[in-house]
Prior knowledge:
By secondary structure, this protein is of the alpha+beta class. Helix content is about 35%, strand content about 20%. The chain is globular, with a radius of gyration of 24 Å.
Amino acid sequence: MKSDIDRLMVERDLDGFLVMGNGNGSVMRYLTGGAFFEGALLLKSKDGPLTLSHGLMERDAAAATGLKLIDRDTHFNRYTLLKKHKGNALEADAELIAGAMEMVGLRGRIGLYGMDEVGAALALVGRVTQLVEEIEIVGEYGETLFNSARETKDDGELAELKRAGELTCQVIGEVQEFIQSHRVRNEIVLRRDDQPLTIGDVKSFIGERLYRYAMKEDHGNIFAQGRDAGVPHNHGDLSMPLRLGQSIVFDFYPTVESGYYHDVTRTWSLGYATDEVMEAYEQVKTLFDRLMAELAVDRAAYDYQAMACEYFESKGHKTVRSHPGTQEGYIHGLGHGIGLDIHEDPYFRHVEEIPTILKPGHVITIEPGLYYPERGFGVRVEDAVAFNERGELIWLTHYPYDLVIPMGRK
């Protein structure tokens, strides 16, 4: 949580931090409450307030953050700096950052975070360290300060995640109604012009509904049918007609305006399901229900992944535990955290040596699945849930689990 940042800085022996890059980075959004600031900087010394360096045109949005502000166009006008350095952008930007660090009193061991082109960031930071005395800029890999802070969510974030879940499920319901509103001939779903209704048509409808609710898809969505459903991250063939009796994996992970994600998967089979798909689905749903009943704080995430592997193996399926690298059966981890990134800590890994203990503030997905591309199907069920500050489990996804979607029109 944000309230943990000062403690985490001390644990990492950091005297401050610097966040670079445009406001579309998840760390920048996290600290500004989701606002976008072009070319912004965020700076904080160990004992000082969080400070936002912003442009003049974004001064009202900057004021709304409640942060301490530096108007860079007044204090470090880039056009003036470019003129001073005869058009040398590296020198101009390095002086801008060095000046902001001077104003904030940033010295000592400084953590570097944010998003920028890797080579440009390397050059820029190298030049800044030459300009600023008594400073060491360091990077982290893996469990960074902000990965750790963002791993648990406070009540304000949880409210945004609940809202994301409500809107996402609203769109799923409208997608289902859209598909069901079409008629069927020879097991092909048809549009009004008698042409097949395609996955591309469904995705276009999804885009329209997201626009209606001011939501976005930073990573698209998965609406994969038949064999494509058997490869977990196949997004679906846009030209493929919707057919009755084939499994459809619909994995949907949009964001609301503040940048927080929801993540939910439903498996559908239009009209009817084959015996093979029905059996696989019943196994996945049975495991899903057992896992949800067992979820609790202070339990190791690995335990749940082990439970999934054990169950699927008992049903004769290959798993990532019994057959590492398998392309069929249960082939991935059980779930992951969500927030301002679609995948973030904690993870339900199948590596026991990476301990992760569930705790209050975790927001996670649970998504068991079975995949058989060469047999023409895949199934997955996924919900997002959270543990509140009291450790109580809260469901963020509220949508029916029906496998078979009735298609009544002829």
